[in-house]
Amino acid sequence: MFNTLSGRFLVLTLVFVMLAEVLIFVPSVARFREDYLMLRLERAQIASLALLADDIIDPGLEQELLDNAGVFNVVLRRDEVRQLVLSSPIPAPISATYDLRDPSSWALIRDGLATLVDPENRIIRIIGKPVQEGGLLIEVTMETGPLRAAMLDYGLRILALSAVISIVTAALLFVAVRILIVTPIRGVIEQMNDYATAPEDARRIIEPTAKVRELREAENALQAMETQLTQSLKQKERLALLGSAVAKVSHDLRNILTSAQLFVDRLEGSDDPTVRRLAPKLVGSIARAVNLTESTLAFGRAEEPPPQLGRVAIAQVVADVIESERLAAGEHDVSFSEDVPVGLTLRADGEQLFRILLNLVRNARAAIVASGEPGEICVQAAEEDEAWVVTVTDTGPGLPPKAKEHLFQPFQGRVAKGGSGLGLTIASELARGHGGELSLVRSGPEGTEFRLTLPKSRIDLRAAAE
Q1: What are the chain's domains?
Q2: Can you provide one Gene Ontology molecular function annotated for this UniProt record (predicted)?
């Protein structure tokens, strides 16, 4: 509770109210003491009137008058004559004298606190002005015990009343703060948490409703900030998706253009003069296109569209991929083999299937070439009861530890130097789009094997793509 705004406000309210009551209590007790002493002077003056009316009174009556006045003796000064009007034995010496004819506020407070904290019953002399001009001054002697008891009783009643006032005031302020301040702030916090769950959703932007000017200003500032943030997120999301799409297209387009470049290189040996004249220009154009696609591979990911399923002859797709990569291997000692049943067809998107296998075979070829050792790449396909399975196996050096750790993660699972790290990511996404799976079976010094599984059961293409 004390860690909340309303709880701390409640504590501070109690502290401040009690402090105010203390500032009121001390002067009140001092004033009570003055009134108490003045009342004793008045009673003493009234008691002295009996003696003034009759010079001789019974000693018992005199004692009764002194007891009623609460004093031991009364001295009245009239016409410059100081007269002991009433008297009785004083049990102890007089310890202090207080003059109430023109006391200062500080003197009253000081003497009142001194009387309140002194538990000993002392004898004091009080000097004051008689009422109704009944003389020049009047003096009485009295005990401090009854005075202190009366002051304590009055002080306790003041403190009790102060405590009640403090509690009621603090409770009212506590409720008011919760209603007027804490509840609106909590509403803003809940709105911020709700907005944080989906900051791109413009419907979650706060609508200012506060009546308090400061809270309204805070809500207006928050609304402006959330609106700007939502717009920025949408713009960045669109740019990221666009960049990701360009990166993926560029990655596979680069592979296709590289293969085309190898085919065009063969045209330079043609006997046709026109072909020989145009071949260098064509090679230069394709080279520029390859460079352009490579420069766009710094973008992120984007979701692939759902595949257009159809019956695909897997043997033809594998043959196209191997022929392309055989040309890319050139003079490097890389051999290719395939083990695909004749006439095997599967339900897939032919273009996306080509991209999956091209990425896998190209990565295998690049790994073998980078090792400087001869190697073999084998593509196998088989039909099982529930799925079609295609495996790509190589005898290369295996995947680097970082590639294994970040397998299928964009820009992090780079296998060969100069690669983009998108090949396996794209292949995995395309496999998931078919409702299938691309997995790493093994990888080590003896080689690497990837397994592509495409289910035979009918699937929801959009759900699979997502």
Answers
A1: 5-169 (no CATH), 303-465 (3.30.565.10)
A2: ATP binding
